[in-house]
Amino acid sequence: MGRISIWVSLAVLLLALPWASSGYVVFLACLCGVNIVATLGLNITTGYTGLLSLSHAGFVAVGAYTTALLSNHWGVPILVCILLSGVMASLVGGIFGLPSFRLKGIYLAVATLAAQYTIIFALRQGGPITGGDSGLVVSIPQIGGLALDTNQKFYFVVLAVTVLAIWISRNLFFTRIGRAFIAIRERDFTAEVFGINLMRYKALAFMIGAFYAGVAGSLLAGFMRVVTPEQFSLTESVFYLAAVVVGGAGSIAGSIIGAVFMTLIPEFIAFALESTQEAFGFRAIAILGSVREIVFGGMIVAFLVFEPRGLSEVARRIWARLKRTKSSSSDNAHSKHT
Amino acid sequence: MMFLEYSLIGIAAGGIYGLLALGFVFIFMASGVFNFATGQMMMLGAYFFLAFSKIPGLPWWAAFALAILGSIVVAIILEWVVIRRLIGQPVISAVMVTMGLGWMLQGTASLIWGQVPQQLPDVLPRAPIFIGEILVPGRSVWGFVIAIAVALASVVYFRYSRTGVALRATASDQITAYSMGINVPASIRLTWIMAAISTTFAGVIAGSINGVTPELSNVAISVIAVVLLGGVNSVGGVIIAGLMMGWLETISGVYLGGHWREVIPYLAVLLVLLVRPSGLFGSKLVERI
Fold this sequence. Notes:
CATH topology of chain A: ABC transporter involved in vitamin B12 uptake, BtuC
Number of domains of chain A: 1
Strand content of chain B: under 5%
Largest sheet of chain A: 2 strands, antiparallel
Radius of gyration of chain A: 21 Å
Mean pLDDT of chain A: 86
Largest sheet of chain B: 2 strands, antiparallel
Shape of chain A: globular
CATH architecture of chain A: Orthogonal Bundle
Oligomer: heterodimer
Strand order of the largest sheet of chain A: 1-4
Number of strands of chain A: 4
CATH class of chain A: Mainly Alpha
């Protein structure tokens, strides 16, 4: 099977998904798409540029609330909402990225923690504009007069945006900007000597990462149709970091694998607990949250200790081994002839 | 008058922050690891005390000693199995790993003990205490006194004992400490043991004032702010910063509303860091190239 046929069958599979599967699967697919976009953004800020950010969920929240407000009050079409949410989040990201000129490593992480708390605080205190603790209900997203009232329809928006986001971030690292990010991660002092304006590029790394987060938030608002401050807590920020780490920091494929893996793992845990609860005599719902915490935490620890380059590295190694066994068996066939 | 009363209560609450921050700083100085699992270690200490105090016939001080022992065992295992393997990895890894460990501890605790708040046995005297004309809850005062006493004791230990000196040598230069014959891994393990002791004290004090739930670990979110406010490499600084933070939180909670408690510590730290990146009392960390 050639490279092209793999891509074609993947495309057919993704396009046919809404017709071929249940609403639950489509919902999960949408969630995967959203998390892929958000994780790509965090991987640009943290994985490629090396700026540890704990406020990614806050930037996702900015995007989600922007979309909610735009479509509720002015009936702005969803594609415009997505763009404007990205812009809004990147502005907020740029402001909170300002400390990164002076702060490094752990100090920067705590500055971003401040950003996370401030954003959620503002949303809680926003009164009737943000709906306080109970959040906002989002009106049905529109696209050129067509109402995207089901997940099946909205799925195609998520799919298109996710593919575009992957394509853009892949190409970002062939440009001067992307190279500058990697240089900053490796050693920012040296990068500066090479003529990279640290201030500008660090702010840019935050803004691009937050732009992705805003787009992800907009998509999330579009298919969840409700936004609350709780959806974007610090735990979610750590979730995105975990997706970056588990998938592979500084890898586009890693962001995709990590986001999908982290999105599906809770479903597997829930499924495993529900199917064994009668045999072992416990109530799955009662312990689901605790087990999820243990598994998430355990995965972060295990990957960082044993495979710091993440699942993408594991996948690459397996792939290389498969190739080697294939080529070595054909080599053997050759050597018999000579 | 009210202001003074709330100030005293706030400073008393800050004693726990100072104690927790100290555990943070010891680990950071010896190994450069920022322990985001501090809150969970503290919560676990409180639960250990709760579990051991339920053993019939066991006096509370024995239960407390067992709780400290349990926390030390957990800390040694964490350091030995996980943290030691991170040597030479970037800062981000250590942050993420300790966060992951924190989640594991949190999940385990809520799996074993559930989400329902539980009452610790009354150890601290309840009778309110008058300071001049101001009335302060007894448990707050005694909690503060104990927290500060433990903090000062560990500072003295750090400064004057033989192992403390070895610890400081490790902190100032790991390679040189190695070549002078100091057992560096043992020093690092010692910092984790000290952190286990201080977090258990803090957990039992905080737990006997507010009750114990797995959410007790959230207290330590402020502690991270305290450490940066004081300066990561300043032993005395973080204790003072802890008291300041306790005061700031209580005062802003009273005069601005409870919601502000969550943001004020971090906004304060953000402002201080922008002006003084190494904290109020920290010395500048030199970056070697």
